[in-house]
Amino acid sequence: MLYLLLFLLAAPHQNLLAIQDALQAGDLATASRLIDQSIRQYPNDAGLLNLRGVLHAQRQELPQARSDFAEAVRLAPDLTPAWQNLARACRMQADQDSSAFSCAVKAWEQVSHLMPGDKEAIDSLRPLLEKIASADPKDPAPL
Question: Cα separation of 42 and 52, whole Å?
Fold first, then answer.
């Protein structure tokens, strides 16, 4: 009985690894199939939603990617990779969607909170804040 329970607890982790391997190999069809199967079993798993967002991003489906990353961080507020991916997806959409710019800033701020000194967060946040400051020089908040 204990073995069965341990197997069931390990199943989501095994699924995540197989999905990550497929994504890294560029096998989007396999990744998609594994994600669909896994999400049917574990619909509120933040790690799976994050990986589905990665799949959408690799397919250039940024609104869907952003939605998955946002849901992943809602379900697991300390899931740093999902915050990083949300920030990246928002930044990539910033030219088409005005809300995406503030989304990117907030997500990178959260990454900085979770991982103080994270180089990518610092390097990404600085130009975003400079852009905000140049748009409204009288607003001291971005500074």
Answer: 13
3-state secondary structure (DSSP) of residue 77 = coil
Structure tokens at 12: 């989501």
Per-residue pLDDT in tens (0 to 9) along the chain, 143 residues:
333 333 334 456 677 888 889 999 999 999 999 999 999 988 999 999 999 999 999 999 999 999 999 999 999 999 999 999 999 999 999 888 878 888 999 999 999 999 999 999 989 888 888 877 776 666 555 44
Residue 137 CA to residue 10 CA, distance in Å, equals 52
- Alpha-carbon dihedral 16, 64, 105, 19, rounded to 10 degrees: 10
